[in-house]
Amino acid sequence: xxxxxxxxxxxxxxxxxxxxxxxxxxxxxxxxxxxxxxxxxxxxxxxxxxxxxxxxxxxxxxxxxxxxxxxxxxxxxxxxxxxxxxxxxxxxxxxxxxxxxxxxxxxxxxxxxxxxxxxxxxxxxxxxxxxxxxxxxxxxxxxxxxxxxxxxxxxxxxxxxxxxxxxxxxxxxxxxxxxxxxxxxxxxxxxxxxxxxxxxxxxxxxxxxxxxxxxx
Length: 216
Fold this sequence. Notes:
The chain has helices spanning about 1-10, 20-25, 30-45, 50-75, 80-85, 130-145, 150-165, 170-200, 205-210; strands at about 90, 110. By secondary structure, it is mainly α. It has a two-stranded antiparallel sheet with strand order 1-2. Helix 4 (about 50-75) packs antiparallel against helix 6, helix 4 (about 50-75) packs across helix 8 (about 170-200) and helix 6 (about 130-145) crosses helix 8. It is elongated and about 65 Å long.
């Protein structure tokens, strides 16, 4: 079932329009400049909620990426689809600097040649892209409840792109979605509890005005 769904998404449900979209969605380096601008603006011009959102997101996403995802990858060593099978479409942005400009150029597409590969050990499970983006989407929704839920749309696009581009098995991505949501909910509750119970000791006046991280 895993392989069949991979073939459908990676080989059948493709188009020249989707190729650059999916390549851009999967390229973290392309989004670094706009991400820096958004974070800088929120820290400079934002209120308590905006700054609390930035620091909370930074802590949780860093923990998810370095502790959860990275540790499991090294334990599982699951090969990626293009490491295990021939003719998996690998869709990547063209090599430009800055990477975001590659969105204006045709993506690089090649078919995998896995037969005879010297190293089948991989980092396919879990999908760090999926864990991190769904985590960020959930944090955004919790801090900005009215419109924050829109952030799940790009997060799900990133998750789908990891299968489309041949970087992950569907089961990697589906499991990573649940993993990202579960761990993030626990960490959000923990950070909010720490701020409620300990924040007043370090930031008395600020805590008096904002007794909860997540309160509207």
